[in-house]
Amino acid sequence: MAVIQKCGKNGCQDLVCLKENHPPDKTSASGCRKRWPEPNSYWSRPVARVWTVVLLLGTCLLYCARVAMPICSVSMAEQFHWSKSESGMVLGSFFWGYCFTQVFGGYVSDRVGGEKVLLLSTAAWGSMTAFTPVLAHFCSQPIVSMTLSRFLMGLLQGVHYPSLASLCSQKVVESERGFLMSTVGSGSYLGTLMIGGVGSIMLDLYGWQSVFYVSGLLSVLWAHCVWKCLLKGEGPIITLESLGSGGSQSKLSKRRWLWLLKQPAVCAVIITHLCAASSFFTLLSWLPTFFRDTFPDAKGWVFNVIPWLVAIPTSLFSGCLSDHLITQGFNTVSVRKLMQFMTMGLSSVFTLLLCGNNTFPWAVAFVSATIGLSTFTHSGVSVNVQDLAPSCAGALFGVMNTCGAFSGVVLVYVSGYLIEATGSWATVFALITAVNLLGLSIFLVYAEARRFDIESCKAHRHSIHV
């Protein structure tokens, strides 16, 4: 009988048997009651590679559909006579829907499977995207229909990343999670580039409606192919019974959740993700304005495209590097801290360099380095949540992403106020650096990589689940 022994801080041993089809319960020599785990449900490496490519394409299409409205907003505003404030209301409504379904999407994914939630949500927001032109033309008040459609888009797309975190924690071994999450994360940059390039051409040649039609129908096609080829046509139905009878690993009591959220390592993950997401969101929002104000004669496609072209290979490299280090025997938490140091520490150096008087090529180089290094977070804090609580990683990631989204809006507003009050971009870059260093310091001090979502043998000898 093969047995793995893991010792926690309390010195107690959690016994995990690797052999299948054992008796339901048995008492170990140390007096611990252990329950034999279900057969290993991790993907094999070939299957994981297939899912990695599929999820990469899904995330790419997610951003194609998400960015379709910002690309088409100018043309739509001209056609429907929207003011700047009305256009801002339409664009901003996505954010509010996006925040509200993060935790719910992760919770459902933890109980019924992330692949089901991803499939259903993609089919829904893909259909919503394809029907956007219809809603705009057949509604007497296009501003109302577009605001509601963007809000619904946010609700439906809000479950994507929590579902990915849940799926990865349940199906991918620890030493390969960094590569999957970083590769799938690079789909956001690829999708932004694709819709920015191809979408702009379609907008000029065929009108803004074509952008919504193509991106929406491709998303629905992706969902159909996943259902037929990977899920073998199994109905992705989520019922109340399935939510109530989810796997035992996803059932954490309210008391256990409160205990989990009070752990320093869990709080560190939430705060670090909050800082990283808000600083990145601020850069994403203000960098185009920075270049227009500082270099008014510069070509927009240079600073709008080059940083994202750099982000794709750096994201892939970070995943390969983190998995390689773990495979070579380096401590998991040390690898996570190294990746986050690259994200929030080394990138801050290049952010501070933007405070000086730079030429346009050097400014583009510094921004590209900052954006590229920020992608290392896919192999840092984004994966660390799966180390800490794989049984509820989706819901916990939803909490992190919700906090990050709200703090991002606040930091963007504060940055705008600083620009108006001081007239200097250096204050904004200094603020971003300070936020990054705060989150990095907390992560370096408190981050861990051991599980917190299982009962300890000492306290609950009869309910160990691995």
List the helices and strands and how they pair.
Layout lengths: L2 E5 L5 E5 L7 E3 L5 E3 L9 H36 L3 H17 L1 H11 L1 H17 L1 H7 L3 H16 L2 H12 L5 H30 L1 H23 L9 H5 L9 H8 L2 H31 L5 H28 L4 H22 L6 H15 L6 H8 L4 H30 L3 H21 L20
Antiparallel strand pairs: 1-2, 3-4
Helix pairs in contact: 1-6, 1-8, 1-9, 2-6, 2-17, 3-4, 3-7, 3-17, 4-6, 4-7, 4-9, 5-6, 7-16, 7-17, 8-9, 8-13, 12-15, 12-16, 12-17, 12-18, 13-14, 13-15, 14-15, 14-18
Number of H- or I-type helical stretches: 18
Please trace the helix and strand order, writing H or E for each element: EEEEHHHHHHHHHHHHHHHHHH
How many beta strands in the DSSP annotation? 4
Rounded to an integer in angstroms, the radius of gyration calculated over CA atoms is 23 Å
Structural class: mainly alpha
Q: Would you tell me the overall average pLDDT?
A: 83
Shape: globular
Largest sheet: 2 strands, antiparallel
- Spatial gap, N to C terminus: 17 Å
Helical content (DSSP H or I, runs of 4+): over 70%
Strand percentage: under 5%
Strand order of the largest sheet: 1-2
List the uncertain runs: 1-39, 456-466
